[in-house]
Amino acid sequence: MFFLNLDYLQAFHDPDKEIRILIHSATWVKFINDNSDIHMSDIMPNALIVYYSRSGATRTMAEEIGEALKKEGIDVAVQKVEDTKVSDLLGYDGIIMGSPTYYGTMAAELKKLIDDSVEIHGKLDGKVGAAFATAAVSGFETTVFSILEGMLIHGMIIQGNPAGDHYGAVAVGEGTFSDSEWSSNFAKRVADLIKRL
Ligand SMILES: Cc1cc2nc3c(=O)[nH]c(=O)nc-3n(C[C@H](O)[C@H](O)[C@H](O)COP(=O)(O)O)c2cc1C
Questions:
Q1: Which of 18, 73, 105, 128 is deepest in the core (most CB within 10 A)?
Q2: Nearest atom (ligand 1) to Cα of 135
């Protein structure tokens, strides 16, 4: 109740914050009354991680990125591309896609989702996008970029990196992502952008 009263006082004195504060207050009222229909996902920024993985390396990376995003306060869903419908993409503030490198580009399964997303063309405009890729040897950067191209055409906003891997998270083989600087860096930078927008 202390929070509620303080919020209302601030709302009167700070019109710029009024909407945010009233939402915050309403959340507390519902919480206190213990009959809430509001879930954390209604008030937390969220992200969907969609990946394709045949032998597990990209799945491991997807799960690690998911855990790191949760630590940054993002409500995360991690899902296989085979289980993902185009309409799923609409429900998230951030969309992160991952693929193995197949001859220097993304797997056909992920490309199909991106091609099918023409159905919702224009509706992803302004959402945050990011990509990651695995490879046996190399080629992961062109894979990441092939995903980012589709995201940019949708009007999505991409966080680059001036220091670490510039375009997105990359790994050679399973397990190497955990050791790279990206494990601490990629998720934080993507999460910060999602929270800012
Ligand atoms: C059809 C096919 C094409 C591939 N092309 C490349 C390639 O161009 N460069 C490379 O380094 N690895 C290549 N690989 C290896 C995979 O990118 C690598 O093993 C990847 O980490 C597998 O991911 P997954 O375990 O999530 O399926 C290829 C594998 C397959 C099956």
A1: 128
A2: 17
